[in-house]
């Protein structure tokens, strides 16, 4: 059985150092430039459509011991918008392998400042 976590129990990583909510993260994902086309928020729109159509299998997130998100902020934002209560949990190593499998290698600068 795949371990899952309640989306409502996960905290945005930026909340470790700032007053930051999932609403703030939602606004942020909609301003990020998509690496495939350059349009703001495009990646988030595609992800939400995919999750709505296909569910969350293979859509794991990484959560640290304090309940802060380590990887998967787009998936959490999509889950909150779609009313999905739980998401699968994966290790950092599994998250990295999934990224490379799905997207290939992307330079950290592009991953930090753009979405794909």
Structure characterization notes:
The chain has helices spanning 22-29, 42-54, 73-82, 92-103, 108-113; strands spanning 4-6, 33-34, 62-63, 69-71, 86-88, 114-115. The relative contact order is 0.22. A hairpin with a 5-residue loop joins strand 3 (62-63) and strand 4 (69-71). The model has no long low-confidence stretch (mean pLDDT 89). It is of the alpha+beta class and 116 residues long. It has one domain (4-115).
Give the helix/strand layout.
Layout: E1 4-6, H1 22-29, E2 33-34, H2 42-54, E3 62-63, E4 69-71, H3 73-82, E5 86-88, H4 92-103, H5 108-113, E6 114-115
Parallel strand pairs: 2-6
Antiparallel strand pairs: 1-5, 3-4
Helix pairs in contact: 1-3, 2-3
Strands, total number: 6
- Global outline: globular
H/E series:
EHEHEEHEHHE
The count of helical stretches stands at 5
Report strand order across the widest sheet.
1-5
| Low-pLDDT residue intervals, each spanning 5 or more residues | none
* Number of spatially distinct domains: 1
* Computed Rg: 13 Å
Strand content: 5-15%
Q: Biggest sheet, in brief?
A: 2 strands, antiparallel
Structural class: alpha+beta
Q: How much is the average pLDDT?
A: 89
Brief write-up:
The chain has 116 residues and is an alpha+beta fold.
Structural features:
13% strand; 5 helices; globular; single chain; 116 residues; alpha+beta
């Amino acid at each position: 059985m795949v371990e899952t976590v309640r989306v409502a129990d996960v905290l945005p990583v930026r909340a470790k150092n700032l007053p930051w909510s999932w609403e703030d993260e939602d606004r942020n994902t909609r301003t990020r430039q998509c690496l495939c086309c350059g349009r703001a928020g495009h990646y988030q729109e595609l992800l939400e459509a995919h999750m709505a159509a296909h569910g969350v299998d293979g859509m794991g997130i990484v959560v640290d011991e304090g309940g802060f998100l380590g990887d998967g902020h787009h998936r959490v934002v999509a889950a909150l918008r779609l009313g999905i209560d739980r998401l699968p949990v994966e290790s950092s190593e599994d998250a990295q392998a999934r990224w490379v499998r799905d997207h290939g290698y992307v330079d950290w600068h592009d991953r930090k400042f753009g979405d794909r």
